[in-house]
Amino acid sequence: MWIIYALLSAFFAALTSILAKIGIENINSNLATAIRTVIVLIMSWAIVFITGKHNDIANIGHKNLLFLILSGMATGLSWLCYYRALQIGEASKVMPIDKFSLTIGMALAFIVLKETITVKTIIGGSLITIGVFVLIF
User: b/e for 80-104, b at 16 or more Cβ within 10 A?
Assistant: First the structure.
C-alpha cells in the first residue's frame, strides 16, 4: 500500500510545482508560500478531525514533538526556497534540483538512521544524481 501512497505523493508533488509556477506569477514568493501553508494546515487538521485522531495529541512524547517541530521548520525553509527558485527559474530545471533531495535524504538515512546501504541504493542514488545534473546543465 505504501507504493500507492508514494506514487500519489509524486503525482501531487509534480502537480504542486506546475500549479505553483502559475500561481506565483506577479506575487511575492514568500506570500505564496504562506498561502499554500495555510491551505495545507487546514487540510491536515480537517483530516485529523474527520478521522478522529485529534484525541491522540495527548499521547505525543517530547522527543516526537521536538522532531516534528524540527521537521516542520525544515519543510518551511524548503518551501520558501523552492517557491523563490520556482518564481525566478524554469520549473523544468527547478523541479529536478529539488528532487536531488532524494539523494541527500538517502545519504542522511544511511548516516543518521543507520539504514543499510545496498548496491541498489548506491546505483539508484547515483542515477538520480546523474539525472539531476543532466537536466540542469
Answer: bebbbbbbeeebeebbbebbeeebe
Angle at 68 between CA 126 and CA 20, to 5 degrees: 65
* Matching residue, cell 537536466: 135
Separation between Cα atoms, residue 127 and residue 133, nearest integer Å: 10
Question: Could you give the angle at which helices 91-99 and 101-111 cross, rounded to 10 degrees?
Answer: 10
Task: Output the CA–CA distances (angstroms, integers) from residue 66 to 57, 60, 103, in the order listed.
Answer: 14, 10, 25
In SS3 terms, 32-68 reads as: HHHHHHHHHHHHHHHHHHHCCHHHHHHHCCHHHHHHH
Question: Which residue type is seen at 59?
Answer: N
pTM for the structure as a whole: 0.82
Q: CA-CA distance, 92 to 95, in Å (whole number)?
A: 6
Helix (H) or strand (E) holding 2: helix 2-23
pLDDT one-digit tens code per residue, 38-55: 999 999 999 999 999 999
Angle CA(91)–CA(130)–CA(124) in degrees, nearest 5? 105
* Identity of residue 117: I
